[in-house]
Amino acid sequence: MMAQVGKQAPSFTLPSTKDATGPKDLGKKISLSDYKGKWLVFFFYPLDFTFVCPTEIRALSDHYDEFKELDTDVLGCSTDSVHSHWAWLKLPREQNGIGGTRYPLVADFTKEVARAYGVLDESSGVAQRGLFIVDPDGVLKYAVVTDDNVGRSVEETLRVLQALQAGGLCPAEWKPGKSLLQPA
Fold this sequence. Notes:
about 25% helix; single chain; Glutaredoxin; about 180 residues; 5-stranded mixed beta sheet
């Protein structure tokens, strides 16, 4: 099943860094169904230990409380192994690491999930930079894929999430507190 806005998001079960305190307890499985009843920002990034990726991962983590206030979880994914994720999580930010990240990362080492979400670059075997918002019923509500050289905006992700949660017709540049459009 290929990801399509307005349809059920492709399910997955992947090994993660969730609740890991060391390399020996890595790999706790996380499934899309674990987020039933909550909103989920599920994003793919190309590779661990790169340049643009840590800026996005850290920015999402820095705004994690804002996502939680919107009853939303965040989950990052790449085609790297869970062991690579762990090593990167242990590296301080000053050394281009993602230490202190407040949400788990999952490892799509088989590349099946990246393929299902339409972000796998088949020639390199690496996920493209994709971000998906899934509603509490598991329906994919938003999808964006950008060039690997361009980081995503957390502010825009929060704005889109709030627009989706507003439950109405949101005009361009809509922000919380602004009026929704009324159908004629």
